[in-house]
Design brief:
The protein is of the alpha+beta class. It has a domain of 80 residues: Regulator of K+ conductance, C-terminal domain (Alpha-Beta Plaits, 2-Layer Sandwich). The chain has 25 helices and twelve strands. The strands form three sheets. The chain has a five-stranded antiparallel β-sheet with strand order 5-4-6-3-7. A five-stranded antiparallel β-sheet has the order 10-9-11-8-12. Strands 1-2 form a two-stranded antiparallel sheet. Strand 4 and strand 5 form a beta hairpin. Helix 19 packs parallel to helix 22.
Length: 615
């Protein structure tokens, strides 16, 4: 191997070591590695290691643009409550652990094939936490299945995960080149054809692998995943509030019982009474029918009170939030403690003119740790009262508010979803999927159009659209593409392919396929699935062409291997996201992940030659 190729491999080794140490961010390590290659190329005179145009080409790559757009689309679905609407219908009411796991993993896997799985898991986390409390199931039984199901689903479609997009676009870069064999002439399926990635082709192998993974987890979960957390952990949040929510005419549970509306066993919050046409129904039973206009009084901890606003069809008493000026702005919940020298002491909320003065609505009051009952406007405020406010973000920096309150703090993740736009957001997502699958339009253009529609339709404010884009992840992908180009430019990929062939070629194409899969698995779990895909693909492509075999079977192996990130909590973002909520230990992932990697590899070797023949 040339000295330039050895240098590239050395830089990759340094990047790998930095990532394994977990002391350096993934984006910092990958961009740093790319910078080393570019500097070395300039010092040596240029065009020997990594030409500048190749090194920076990854940041303008179509895959990077498309992934960024998908983050915006997923955020629009989240901010409108669309994901809650979908999840509520799919999760349902399981009768046990096995039923719960199947109801969770099947829809998550299928949805993951249609949208980026990282924001999907982020959207499911609060839903699943409540679900565990309602069903009295240990979170450790469901959170790893949530992450793994999202990873399984990433191999169902061309857009299931960002590494799929990257590999298919890299495969397209070789389409039409002389002496390049992408697929067998009689292949029943093609990953790419006529300049367009196939939307569902990889799913021919990905779907059986997803079913296999779900079955393995369902059958072995109790043995391989110990119960790390009790079914109902005690809440550390003792901040109780009482507030009233009115049932709107569009509520899906009008005419249903309290039990059927799932309002009886809400975690951390209790339905204490129903106020209907001037009469009270204390401690309503499960068979009490809910009617339009009913006033529901809840008492509970702050986190649960916050979650009440996510329930479609409920609005705060007297529609206070809608009366706030600029209610179209980004709203949030804020806690504010009345200061000792505040002029509010001894005055009623109505006399203060709170909504007009601060453009904020008081939705609950707590005094001495006890929630106050009654109409908000009639409450007499005292020093030390804690007010729960529905307002916009300007309140946090309001000078007059700072004079009247000792403490002003935002309640995290408390933006109310815009339920009125949920159907529009779901429609945009479904239209995007159909367009990518059927329309003769570039997939990146379709994704960008869907992202633009989310903003133009006001499903997602522009500010939140910008915040939704995971720019560090885009940097990782762009830098990884550049490093992959260095492997190709210096011949390092071809040299590794030769070594791979020397070991596997005497044993036939299946042996080469297995080696490619294992190489992608190792890189995927040590670095990241995107980096692994970009770094291993050039090796797999060079190996396939060296023995004059079709490239697509090996590209499929890279896709499936790079996404087999089941061996540690740091091998994939969704694994890390569920690590804390599930109360897991580091080795819990490998305990259930290693059998999955082995079984997926065996099934992959059997299925890929059927759908993507070598010759």
């Amino acid at each position: 191997m040339s000295s330039e190729g050895l240098f590239v491999l050395g830089v990759i080794g340094l990047v790998t070591a930095a990532l394994m140490s977990r002391r350096i961010g993934v984006d910092t390590a990958m961009v740093g590695g790319l910078l080393l290659l570019l500097l070395a190329d300039q010092i040596l005179g240029g065009d020997r290691i990594l030409p500048i145009q190749d090194g920076l080409s990854g940041f303008s790559h179509k895959a990077v643009v498309m992934i960024g757009a998908l983050y915006v689309v997923a955020a629009g679905l989240r901010e409108t409550g669309g994901i809650h609407l979908i999840a509520g219908k799919l999760l349902g009411r399981p009768k046990g652990l096995l039923s719960a796991q199947l109801r969770l993993m099947l829809p998550v896997g299928l949805l993951s094939g249609l949208m980026n799985n990282t924001p999907l898991v982020a959207m499911y986390l609060p839903i699943l936490g409540d679900w565990c409390r309602r069903l009295r199931l240990s979170p450790s039984r469901l959170f790893i299945p949530l992450s793994f199901a999202a990873i399984f689903g990433g191999a169902l479609t061309a857009i299931g995960t960002s590494s799929n997009i990257v590999i298919l676009e890299m495969l397209l870069d070789h389409e039409g080149q002389e002496d390049v064999v992408l697929s067998a002439s009689d292949a029943p399926l093609r990953l790419v054809q006529d300049g367009v990635p196939s939307f569902l082709a990889i799913g021919a192998v990905g779907l059986p692998l997803m079913v296999l993974g779900i079955v393995v987890i369902a059958l072995t979960n109790k043995k391989l995943l110990p119960e790390r957390q009790p079914a109902e952990p005690p809440s550390l949040d003792t901040r109780d509030y009482q507030l009233a929510m009115r049932i709107r005419s569009d509520a899906p549970f009008v005419g249903k019982t309290v039990e059927a509306a799932d309002l009886r066993h809400l975690p951390g919050v209790y339905l204490t009474r129903i106020e209907r046409e001037g009469r009270n129904i204390p401690a309503p039973g499960p068979e009490e029918t809910l009617l339009e206009g009913d006033l529901l009084w809840f008492t509970g901890i702050l986190d649960s009170v916050r979650d009440l606003r996510n329930i479609r069809g409920l609005e705060m008493l007297d529609g206070q939030a809608r009366k706030i000026q600029g209610a179209h702005q980004i709203r949030t919940l804020v806690e504010a403690v009345v200061s000792w020298d505040s002029e509010f002491h001894g005055k009623s909320v109505r006399d203060i003119g709170f909504r007009t003065r601060f453009n904020a609505a008081i939705i609950a009051v707590r005094r001495g740790g006890v929630p106050l009952e009654g109409k908000i406007g009639d409450m007499i405020l005292e020093r030390g009262d804690t007010l729960l406010l529905d307002t916009n973000e300007k309140f946090l920096s309001d000078g007059e508010a700072r004079e009247q309150f000792d403490v002003i703090s935002r309640v995290q993740d408390s933006r109310p979803p815009n339920h009125r736009k949920a159907q529009a957001a779901i429609g945009i997502v479904l239209s995007m999927i159909l367009a990518i699958a059927l329309a003769p339009v570039d997939s990146a253009v379709v994704a960008l159009t869907a992202a633009g529609l989310m903003v133009l339709s006001r499903c997602l404010p522009g500010r939140l659209a910008r915040a939704a884009i995971d720019f560090p992840m885009l940097l990782v992908i762009g830098a990884a593409i550049g490093i992959g180009r260095a492997m190709e430019h210096t011949g390092a990929a071809a040299q590794i392919a030769e070594q791979l062939l020397a070991l596997a070629a005497p044993h036939g194409p299946l042996a080469i396929l297995s080696c490619v899969y294992l190489l992608a698995v190792v890189f995927g779990n040590l670095i990241s699935n995107n980096s692994a895909a970009v770094l291993v693909f050039p090796v797999a492509f060079a190996a396939s062409q060296a023995v004059q075999l079709a490239a697509e079977p090996f590209a499929a192996a890279v896709i499936l291997g790079a996404s087999s990130t089941f061996l540690s909590p740091v091998s994939y973002p969704t694994n890390l996201m569920v690590y804390g909520p599930g109360g897991y230990h580091f080795l819990d992932y490998a305990r259930i992940g290693l059998p999955l990697v082995i079984l997926r590899g065996l099934m992959m070797v059997l299925l890929i030659p059927i759908f993507f023949p070598f010759q």
